[in-house]
Amino acid sequence: MSPEVAPALRRGWRLQWEPAQQRHVLLYPEGMVQLNESAGAILALVDGQRHEEDIVAELEAQFPGAAEIADDVAAFLTEAGRQGWLEAGP
């Protein structure tokens, strides 16, 4: 996913908190992906309106002092795009 694009979850996919598992999951028609805490925090901000830099700024505000947030977000969004989880927002 390019930093110039505001990523959105792929149509038909949704992020959901699973209390029984105490984690976010990504639901899609054929199944579910269990997410770690970092992936859940990033995808919670993926709305088709925020660009990568906006997501990074939000996470830096939520987790002050965390190192390399920008690099982690960029790597995650790239991989999520490769996996087909994301598409360009409207």
TrEMBL record:
<dbReference type="InterPro" id="IPR008792">
    <property type="entry name" value="PQQD"/>
</dbReference>
<comment type="subunit">
    <text>Monomer. Interacts with PqqE.</text>
</comment>
<dbReference type="InterPro" id="IPR022479">
    <property type="entry name" value="PqqD_bac"/>
</dbReference>
<dbReference type="InterPro" id="IPR041881">
    <property type="entry name" value="PqqD_sf"/>
</dbReference>
<comment type="similarity">
    <text>Belongs to the PqqD family.</text>
</comment>
<keyword id="KW-0884">PQQ biosynthesis</keyword>
<dbReference type="Pfam" id="PF05402">
    <property type="entry name" value="PqqD"/>
</dbReference>
<comment type="pathway">
    <text>Cofactor biosynthesis; pyrroloquinoline quinone biosynthesis.</text>
</comment>
<comment type="function">
    <text>Functions as a PqqA binding protein and presents PqqA to PqqE, in the pyrroloquinoline quinone (PQQ) biosynthetic pathway.</text>
</comment>
<protein>
    <recommendedName>
        <fullName>PqqA binding protein</fullName>
    </recommendedName>
</protein>
